[in-house]
Each structure stands twice: as structure tokens, then as C-alpha cells.
Amino acid sequence: MMLIALSLPLTFTMEPVSGLVLLVAMYVGAVSGGLISATLLRMPGTPAAVMTTLDGYPMASAGRPGRALGLGIGASLVGGLISWLALWQLSEPMADWSTKLGPFELFSLVALALALLAGVGETTRARGLLAGGLGVLAAMPGMHPATGELRWTFGITEMNEGFRLIPVLIGMFAIGKILEDVMGKEEKVETVSGDDSPFIPLGTWKKQIVNLLRSSGIGTLIGVLPGVGANIGSLAAYVSAKRASKQPEEFGKGSEEGIVASESANNATVGGALIPLIALGIPGSVIGAVLLGALIFHGLIPGPLLFRNSPEAVHAIIGTVLVANVMMYLIMLCGARWIARLSTVPKQTLLPIVAGSCLWGAYALNGLWFDVVVMLVFGLVGWKMEKAKLPLAAFVIGFVLAPVAEENLCAGLMASGGSYAPLLTRPISICLLLVAAALLLRKKKVTAQAT
């Protein structure tokens, strides 16, 4: 996430399609590459690789690091390709369907997405909703979409347009992570040794077909849900694989099924998360929010208009997911051992470089020091939220979706003469709201039973 947030300013001077290709390729690579350090160093490179650590590192420690890497890399490829197929086949039909939605239906759709924030991350329902609510509040300063009145600007001219997405993202994730690393303790890196081959026989993959398909399907579906993320996808697939396994006692001790389930699922979330982004303009992940910022910066509006006005951008995104998955498979298969050594770079060497890149990226957006201040403030907010175990994904999705919900609600009220009745009388709108309410009530019931 930090790499993509830092790389976003690099795309400002690039052609829109080239910039999107760079960011999408990084997205695929970031999720895929996390398995290397998780397997060899017991240090997940991304939250999505946490479940891989449970079986990848024990297998590698047992003298089979090549096999552990080979299983993870191959499963990553399969999961990525299955989600790419879903992205290719479903994004345009979903965009066409969205053209039939009016402002009230779109508001209800966003309300459903916000309801899903209650289940973001491994946190309680209340924490997910609180983080999402804070994101909504952070989106309030600026100009009212219907009346044009300024609100919560405190007389600061630079706040007339509200907080810009890019400084908020860089602050929440990059600066927040820097503060966490500076305040945290240096961890000792443990490596493993072994010389077995990462090339897995075809017979092994035949035994994993059901696991691959099930886990990739779970990952793709979870990827579509706004704000849920690859870490939840890998967790859900891992649990499902363990329940279906004939040897569940092997999970956590170097199970091949566990590695395959985790890696195929977390990579499948990439294509799934891009489906609502390009079809509806709703980011399915935090990185999707960064891509949304890149699209908007280059004048590309996600949704059905993107397919109509800029089909080359859509084709570039879909094509990049395919090519990046294949390239990551080849790169990781051939260079995993050498890539893992990058994880041992000392923090005192890396953090100043990252911090400087953050400052440059925030300032380069509009040449305003105000954006740098916003980045630093939200960096502190992100760090404090992490300490309080409030999911950053929920905050960012709330921040991104709040203006969309408000604009559509205002447009609907203007069209209906100020009446809220269409929210409950239009079939699609009421169905979406009922699903959102059911999700919240169900989560409340589950939470009550757990306590």
C-alpha cells in the first residue's frame, strides 16, 4: 500500500493509461510478493500474506523452502488469473446495469457499501462503523454539493474544496507506517535454508484443483466487497480449506493446502476489487481508492462513462492484471531468494528515503504546503487509529464514498421536490437498503451472541 501511495505522484506527468498500468501492476505485485518474506523470513510482506506464514514458514523451516515458495507462487498465479477472468467478463455488464440506476438507487448502493464497513478487518462491528464514520466526517469540509455553501472550512481558503484524497492516503498509510516503525522495536530477522526446487509437479496441482477453485472464488467475491481486503479473503479461504481438508490437523504445521488456499485467495481479491471500481466508481479496497484518485486526477470518471469515453483505459487495466500476474509468476519463481533479502534492509536506512518521498508526493500534487500539512495530520490520525485497532480501510472507504452518497442524495431530492419517498418506493433502492439493514442487524446479533 505504501509503495503505491508513494508512486502515485509519479503518474502525474505520465499519460493516463501509462500511469494506470504502473499502479495496477504494482497492485498485483504488492499482493503477490508478500508471500516471499512470509515464507522465508516469517515476516509477511503484506497483511494479505499473514495466513501464508502459518504454513509457509514451517514448511520452509523443515528444509523445503523451494516447495513452499513454489506452491505459493503457483497458487498466486491461478488466483490472479481466475479473478482476471471475472474482471474481464463482469465489469462491463455491471457498468451497463449501473446506467439504469437513478440517484436514489446510487445512494442506496453506497449505503450498502458503507454498511459493509461494519465487517472490515478483524475488528468489532462498532470499530468498523466508527472508523467509517470518521472517514465520512473527514469528507464533510468544503462546498455543499447542492447549495454551494462552505462548511467546516474555519476560514481557511485551501479547505474550500475539502481535503484532497492523495495527501490523505499518503498520510494515513505511508506516514502512519513510518511513525509506527519509528516508535516500534527493531525485529530480528530469521532466515531459513534449503535447496529443494520451487517447480511443483503437475500431479500435485491436480490434487489441489478443488482447493484452488474454491479459494480463488472466495477471494474474488470478497474482493468485490468494499473495504474488506485481501487479508480477509485469505483468512476466509484458509478456514474453508481447513474445514474441507481430510487432514485439518496439518494446518499450521506446513500444510500444502493451507499455502495454496491463502495465496490463491489473496491474489484473487485484486481482480475482484477492480470490478466495482471501474464499473461503479466504488473502490473495493484501499488500493482501489488510490487508483480512484489516479483516475480522477487524469480526468477519467469510473463507471459506465469510462467504458464509453475511455475504453482504452479499461482495456489497459484489464490487460495489465493479466500480464502482471504472469510476469510476477516468472519473476518470483526465478528470483525469490534474492528478493527476500530486501526485507533485511535496516529501518534507519529506509525510513528517511520513504519520508522524503512522502513530502515530495504531497507537495507535487498542487504545489501547496497545505497538502503537506494535511498529509502529516492524517499520518498522525492513521498512526493513532492503528494503535486503537480502528481499521484504516474503513476510514478511507468512508472518506471516498461520503461525497458520492451526498451528491446522489441531493440530486435525487432536487428531482423529487425534496421528497425522500422514492428511497422506499423504488424497487432497487428499497432492496439495497433492506440488504444494508440486514447486514447491520445480523452483525449486531452475531456480536451479541459472541459476548
UniProtKB/TrEMBL annotation:
<keyword id="KW-0472">Membrane</keyword>
<feature type="transmembrane region" description="Helical">
    <location>
        <begin position="360"/>
        <end position="383"/>
    </location>
</feature>
<feature type="transmembrane region" description="Helical">
    <location>
        <begin position="102"/>
        <end position="121"/>
    </location>
</feature>
<feature type="transmembrane region" description="Helical">
    <location>
        <begin position="68"/>
        <end position="90"/>
    </location>
</feature>
<keyword id="KW-1133">Transmembrane helix</keyword>
<protein>
    <recommendedName>
        <fullName>DUF112 domain-containing protein</fullName>
    </recommendedName>
</protein>
<dbReference type="InterPro" id="IPR002823">
    <property type="entry name" value="DUF112_TM"/>
</dbReference>
<keyword id="KW-0812">Transmembrane</keyword>
<feature type="transmembrane region" description="Helical">
    <location>
        <begin position="390"/>
        <end position="414"/>
    </location>
</feature>
<feature type="transmembrane region" description="Helical">
    <location>
        <begin position="162"/>
        <end position="179"/>
    </location>
</feature>
<feature type="transmembrane region" description="Helical">
    <location>
        <begin position="273"/>
        <end position="301"/>
    </location>
</feature>
<feature type="domain" description="DUF112">
    <location>
        <begin position="1"/>
        <end position="397"/>
    </location>
</feature>
<feature type="transmembrane region" description="Helical">
    <location>
        <begin position="216"/>
        <end position="239"/>
    </location>
</feature>
<feature type="transmembrane region" description="Helical">
    <location>
        <begin position="20"/>
        <end position="41"/>
    </location>
</feature>
<feature type="transmembrane region" description="Helical">
    <location>
        <begin position="128"/>
        <end position="147"/>
    </location>
</feature>
<feature type="transmembrane region" description="Helical">
    <location>
        <begin position="313"/>
        <end position="340"/>
    </location>
</feature>
<dbReference type="Pfam" id="PF01970">
    <property type="entry name" value="TctA"/>
</dbReference>
<feature type="transmembrane region" description="Helical">
    <location>
        <begin position="420"/>
        <end position="441"/>
    </location>
</feature>
